[in-house]
Amino acid sequence: MKKQDVLEHFGGVVGIAKALGCKPQAISQWGETIPQGRAYQIEVLTGGALKADAAAPSGQSRPSLRVAPGTPLDSIPSIQRAAARTAE
Predict the structure, then answer these.
(1) Which of 24, 25, 31, 39 could form a Cys-Cys staple with 52, CB 3.0–4.6 A?
(2) DSSP β-bridge partners for residue 2
(3) pLDDT in tens for each of the 88 residues of the chain?
(4) 15 Cα distance to chain centroid
(5) What is the DSSP-derived secondary structure letter of residue 30?
């Protein structure tokens, strides 16, 4: 979903902000591609007239966990989750 398409649909930044319940300044911070969470919200609000791109970036960084050298792999949460998924 492209920002220009959303601007045209809602009639501008203020219209988008009202529909999403946020401030126009938040909309102004978007790049050309709409953040994934907002894109899904817009798809629902428009009844599917505008479609979210499943591959759109969320704009949020993933949390990282610092692990001390020598930490056993089975005690690292991300390794535990990955092992649990492969065991299923």
Answers:
(1) 39
(2) 33
(3) 899 999 999 999 999 999 999 999 999 999 888 888 899 999 999 999 999 887 545 555 556 667 788 888 888 777 777 778 777 6
(4) 21
(5) -
Are 43 and 52 within 8 A, CB to CB? yes
Q: Residue 48, SS3? A: coil
Nearest Cα to Cα of residue 22 among 35, 32, 33: 35
Q: What is the DSSP string of 5-17?
A: HHHHHHTSHHHHH
* C-alpha dihedral, 35 to 39 to 40 to 46, nearest 10°: 160
pTM (two decimals): 0.59
